[in-house]
């Protein structure tokens, strides 16, 4: 069976929400002496901890228990990834913002998403240090814990706080400089999940970055549910099997941003 009813989606939504709340409690208890920190290839800032690995394994085991047909696209290890988006594809980012987690003890998240036959279906973004779980999807609505979130007002770029990739801004990549300059203000947060949470809370109305599938998947589900546009600036389709340079923004901000980049 591929499709789930709305009642089934609601049940799965609440189940995964409870899991992320539990993992969040454990993460808040973690002390420096409990962490083993390693580096991934390519960049000394790209680090991984034992909690990344254990969270991912825990989530995979629990998801398989409720969805035996689950396929996974996850950040850590050499997990086999599907070649298409057919069926139930789950995305896992076990600690998003690991640098923030290790060195600042704040502004990190745990993210999970379910896509069914390529359709963004359910998403969860747990803002760990504030015990906030954003969750839901287009069929059931988007929520912060038990509170239903409201649709985003259609603000323009000059009215918007834009979250951008700091690394790409420092490199002087033109779209990032142009959009940051045109916005009311810009922010650099170091975590996709925390950046998305600003959108969900309407503390920002745009987010522009290059995102891996596990960085984008959950935030896309919830952003589209709340009325944001989630697209590359050239309007090309998103490929959830690979990285995307994407703007998540109100319709007005998206259109204005496309015009700025074209000009």
TrEMBL record:
Keyword Metal-binding: yes
Enzyme class per UniProt: hydrolase
Entries under InterPro entries matching the protein: Inositol_monoP_metal-BS (IPR020583), Inositol_monophosphatase-like (IPR000760)
Lineage: superkingdom: Bacteria
EC number annotated for this UniProt entry: 3.1.3.25
One function term, GO molecular function aspect: inositol monophosphate phosphatase activity
Keyword Ribosomal protein: no
Keywords of the record: Hydrolase, Magnesium, Metal-binding
PANTHER family registered for this protein in UniProt: INOSITOL MONOPHOSPHATASE, INOSITOL-1-MONOPHOSPHATASE-RELATED
Name listed for the protein in its UniProt record: Inositol monophosphatase family (SuhB)
Organism name: Fructobacillus cardui
């Amino acid at each position: 069976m591929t499709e789930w009813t709305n009642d089934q989606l609601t049940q799965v939504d609440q189940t995964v929400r409870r899991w992320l709340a539990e993992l969040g409690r454990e993460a808040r208890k973690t002390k420096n002496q409990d962490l083993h920190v390693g580096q991934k290839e390519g960049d000394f800032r790209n680090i991984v901890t034992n909690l990344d690995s254990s969270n991912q394994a825990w989530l995979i085991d629990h998801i398989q228990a409720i969805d035996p047909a689950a396929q996974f696209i996850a950040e850590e290890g050499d997990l086999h990834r599907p070649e298409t988006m057919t069926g139930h594809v789950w995305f896992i980012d076990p600690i998003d913002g690991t640098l923030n987690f290790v060195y600042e003890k704040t502004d990190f998240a745990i993210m999970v998403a379910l896509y069914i036959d390529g359709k963004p279906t359910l998403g969860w973004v747990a803002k760990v240090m504030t015990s906030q779980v954003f969750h839901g999807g287009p069929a059931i609505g988007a929520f912060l814990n038990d509170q239903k979130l409201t649709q985003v007002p259609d603000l323009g770029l000059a009215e918007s706080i834009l979250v951008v990739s700091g690394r790409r801004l420092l490199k002087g990549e033109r779209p990032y400089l142009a959009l940051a300059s045109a916005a009311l203000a810009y922010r650099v947060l170091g975590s996709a999940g925390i950046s998305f949470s600003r959108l969900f809370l309407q503390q920002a109305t745009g987010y522009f970055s290059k995102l891996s599938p596990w960085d984008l998947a959950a935030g896309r589900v919830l952003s589209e549910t709340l009325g944001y546009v989630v697209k590359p600036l050239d309007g090309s389709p998103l490929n959830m099997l690979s990285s995307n340079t994407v703007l998540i923004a109100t319709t007005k901000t998206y259109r204005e941003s496309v015009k700025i980049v074209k000009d």
